[in-house]
Amino acid sequence: NRNVSEQFKDAQMFEALVLASDMIRLPAEWDKHLRRTSASMVLGVTYDFPTIGSEQDPRVKKVNDFIARLTRAALPGAHLVEFLPWLMYVPSR
User: Fold this and answer.
1) With pLDDT > 70 as the criterion, what percentage of the chain qualifies?
2) Of 53, 56, 61, 92, which residue is the least packed, with the fewest Cβ within 10 Å?
3) Residue 1, CB half-sphere, CA atoms under 13 Å: how many?
4) What is the rounded average pLDDT for all residues in the chain?
5) Cα–Cα distance between 34 and 7 in angstroms, integer?
6) What's the average model confidence in pLDDT over 32-53?
């Protein structure tokens, strides 16, 4: 909703400033900075957590591990049933 998203402008601006500062300080670790920023933003907006300062934070690791598992599960060919469609009819015991 556009009206609700207006509430998050300040949080997004603060996260953008922290991201820019981190990118200037350590540009070679840009992927870690982006992961920290996205996890911090989602946790801050959803659960009202304070800004996460490090990519070593356990919450950031949990979020990134979940995203990695989800991505692997969504890849084509990740499940045996895609190659053997008759497995859909085997009872799950």
Assistant:
1) 100
2) 92
3) 3
4) 87
5) 22
6) 87
Place of tokens 């200037």: 24
Tell me the pLDDT tens digit for each residue of 2-11. Answer: 787 888 888 8
Cut 0.85: pTM above it: no
- Map tokens 């356990």 to a residue: 58
Give percent helix, percent strand, percent coil of the chain, each to the nearest 5.
75, 0, 25
Count other Cβ atoms within 10 Å, centred on residue 72. 9
Return the structure tokens found at 32: 């870690």
User: How confident is the model at residue 2, as a pLDDT?
Assistant: 78
CB atoms within 10 A of CB 22: 20
Tell me how far apart the alpha carbons of residues 4 and 27 are, in angstroms, rounded to a whole number: 33
